[in-house]
From TrEMBL:
Listed GO CC annotations: membrane
Name this protein carries in UniProt: Rhodopsin domain-containing protein
Superkingdom per UniProt: Eukaryota
Pfam families linked to this entry: Fung_rhodopsin
Family listed: Belongs to the SAT4 family.
Length: 361
């Protein structure tokens, strides 16, 4: 198929309507778009830094799930950087002010943004799956998670290749001078693949949001802690909701007469990856807040003038308890009902550190 037939997807914007007022032409949603995505991007950067602090400093146990999530965060930052770059090419502006050069520049930036989005979402899911592997000994669950990782990795590779090879030569996707000779996927094929990718993303989000529930319920923790953890992990359902909204805007994006003004479909794609990263990071931060509230409780109880234990002393005591618990976990035989994996748990994954870092009154 010739690239000239892809004008509706990536060619010049629709023919302008009646003349608009100067105020209308000057309007821009760019600040709103960047503010929204920027807020979530800052949030995931903060939670990622805190996660690495907990694992590296407090627990001294950085795992593959942490590394993969860090790479996913880099992808999300790349998405936000792409949105920032698109401002000069008309992001948030009305269609009437978007000329051909701006359209080409916008598409050139959108190319890496699309790759960052699909790759980042998948890396987030892989990280969560690796985290769940550290919580169970049931071989059936572990095999399922490895198959899950293989499936989404293969599908994402195919999706990324679809984006890269949508047109031959590749730069015909943003260089409209090549449209007359380039060969590209039909619009229907590209659209259907995009919708299929969104549906797979929602389905896998749902799996990762619901799968931890029975695992957490079997953990050696009190009911309140289990419910709190399940509530945090259920944030993945919000990512599912964001994906569903994205599908709606994906279906209507090309028919929107003023799509640059709101840029709804790409915006919801960016929000989806940010929400997924938050859902994966927040459960790992419990030890940090347990230490924090334990210190507050200690300060209130003893006071600085009563000779109560210092902050460093309390942290050292908690660290000793973590190490002691790790030894107990290694020495104890694994159960048959999918409880916490003794060799993998290393006193660092979500629950054990929750209880051992709490200071008794």
């Amino acid at each position: 198929m010739r690239a000239a037939q892809l004008v509706a997807r990536q060619g010049p914007p629709p023919t302008p309507g009646p003349p608009r007022s100067a105020e209308y032409l000057a309007e821009s949603h760019a600040s709103n778009i960047l503010g929204l995505i920027g807020f979530f991007t800052v949030a995931i950067i903060i939670t990622m830094i805190l996660r690495l602090y907990v694992r590296k400093v407090l627990l001294k146990s950085v795992g593959s799930d942490d590394i993969v999530m860090a790479v996913a965060t880099v992808c999300a930052v790349g998405v936000f950087a792409g949105f920032c770059a698109q401002v000069q090419y008309g992001l948030g502006r009305h269609t009437e002010v978007i000329d051909l050069d701006m359209q080409q520049g916008f598409q050139r930036v959108q190319f890496p943004v699309s790759l960052f989005t699909t790759t980042g979402v998948t890396l987030t899911k892989i990280s969560i799956a690796l985290l769940l592997m550290r919580l169970v000994t049931d071989s059936r669950v572990i095999i399922f998670l490895w198959c899950f990782i293989a499936l989404i990795s293969s599908y994402t590779l195919a999706s990324d290749l679809t984006i890269v090879l949508a047109c031959i030569p590749v730069n015909a996707q943003w260089n409209f001078a090549l449209m007359s000779t380039a060969k590209c996927f039909p619009i229907s094929t590209f659209t259907n693949l995009g919708l299929a990718n969104s549906v797979v993303t929602i389905a896998t989000d749902l799996i990762l949001a619901l799968l931890p529930m029975p695992i957490v319920w079997k953990l050696h923790a009190d009911i309140r802690t289990k419910i709190a953890l399940m509530a945090v992990l259920a944030l993945g359902l919000i990512a599912c909701a964001a994906g569903a909204v994205k599908v709606y805007y994906q279906l209507t994006f090309l028919s929107q007469p003023d799509r640059f003004y709101n840029n709804s479909f790409p915006v919801w794609g960016a929000l989806e990856i940010c929400i997924a990263i938050l859902a994966g990071n927040l459960p790992t931060l419990k030890p940090l807040f347990s230490n924090f509230f334990a210190e507050i409780s200690s300060a209130v109880k003893y006071g600085s003038r009563t000779g109560g234990p210092s902050r460093n002393t309390k942290i050292n005591e908690n660290a000793s308890r973590v190490n002691a618990s790790a030894v107990r976990n290694v020495e104890s035989p694994p159960s048959d009902d999918g409880q916490i994996a003794s060799k993998e748990f290393d006193a660092g994954v979500i629950v054990e550190e929750i209880t051992i870092t709490q200071t008794k009154a």
